Amino acid sequence: MIIYTLRRLASLCLTLIAASLFVFAVMEVLPGDPAELILGINGQEDTLAALREQLGLNAPLVERYWIWITGMLAGDFGTSYTYSVPVTELIGERLSVSLPLALIALLLSTLIAIPLGILAASNHNKWPDISLIGATQLGIAIPNFWFAMLLVMVFAVTLRWFPSGGFPGWDAGLLPSLKALLLPAIALALPQASILVRIMRSSMLEVMHEDYMRTARAKGLTFNQTLNRHGLRNALIPVVTILGLQFSFLLAGTVIIENVFSLPGLGRLVFQAINQRDLITVKAVIVLLVATVITVNFLVDLTYAIIDPRLHKRRAS
């Protein structure tokens, strides 16, 4: 297990280095001068030159990459061109919205999908299975922004149970903050739960036909006992992969939902930074999201080894 973990950790570090190089190179070739962006098109040439020197834009690319990456490792993401505040501060403020939103959406999709996937597999080709397959197809087909607007119309405008948008801040209390995040979390969770139900159903159906499941039944265990003791753990292996990918998607893909609900999250920050050509903010957020995806995949691999010890034994041999 230790050798397997070290191998995966080395792969994680190499992938992070390659991703940072790629992001830095792409941002460098984009047109536009950060100094002109800060001072405007009417900035004097000597002032522009002094600002470029201050920002380190005249240094060689290798030196600029080294300064940038070592600064990020130390927690210094630079200063936003638009807001003139540290990017770390901006990201911290927005993560306090986006991270809880992604976690709530992931929790909702998991709590909905795993029981429904087991129910569909246990009633294969019966009406519960057929009904759930149809419902999941609808859930995948419906755009989440349209579903979000529908939720606003029903639960915010008509019933007035939840706010239609905005975020009061965690200082306003836990309940008002969770109420502001619940509708967008449901809008994000719907397509993810629909996908997860199908994955869980397919995985459970495959496990149910394994020899060890028939052996357990032959030893006198009931269907539910066999399913809970032997089937569920093995069926969760592909589901863990989807959960890891879904969390990464939920954290990085909230641009539309956060704009629908006017939430000051990370997705909205990226959208605003791109519009304002705040490249240093865009670069920092992209690297952070890439690092999150890679780290989540690393944790998924470790979870694989815990769920199925045969995995790391095969790779270690």
Automatic annotation (TrEMBL):
GO terms for molecular function: dipeptide transmembrane transporter activity. InterPro entries: BPD_transp_1_N, MetI-like, MetI-like_sf. It is found in: Cell membrane. Keywords: Cell membrane, Membrane, Transmembrane, Transmembrane helix, Transport. Coiled coil: none annotated. GO terms for cellular component: plasma membrane. It is a multi-pass membrane protein. The keyword Membrane applies. Belongs to the binding-protein-dependent transport system permease family. This is Peptide ABC transporter. It comes from Cohaesibacter celericrescens.
